[in-house]
Design a protein that fits this description.
By secondary structure, the protein is an all-alpha fold. The chain has one domain.
Length: 108
């Protein structure tokens, strides 16, 4: 195997990781931004005291849950990217180890 072939493989694996994550990450960013801009309020129900307060709390809980969900999904997408880079790095390490092993074999 030539060094160019190894470099191409490693580059392909890294590019695959970037490509797999790019669109989902953009979508997650847009969703997070949209949820951050949503202003849920009880509106007219606020005049009813306890009911209005309960609705406000429920809206806050829903908004926090949505943001927490998106945070988890972002971490999962990031994990895909990290795994691709880790795979590429393992590929390079494996090639280096094989080259060193081959060099040791020819000496003995």
């Amino acid at each position: 195997m030539s060094g160019d072939f190894v470099a191409t493989q490693v580059g392909s694996i890294r590019e695959m990781g970037r490509n797999m994550v790019a669109a989902p990450m953009r979508d997650l960013e847009r969703m997070s931004s949209a949820i951050g801009h949503v202003d849920l309020s009880s509106g007219a129900y606020g005049a009813f005291g306890l009911v209005g307060g309960s609705l406000e709390q429920a809206f806050d809980v829903v908004k926090r849950a949505a943001l927490a969900y998106l945070t988890v999904k972002r971490a999962q997408a990031s994990g895909i990217h990290d795994k691709a880079y880790s795979t590429a790095n393992t590929y390079v390490d494996g090639d280096g180890n094989a080259g060193r092993a081959a060099a040791d074999i020819t000496r003995t």
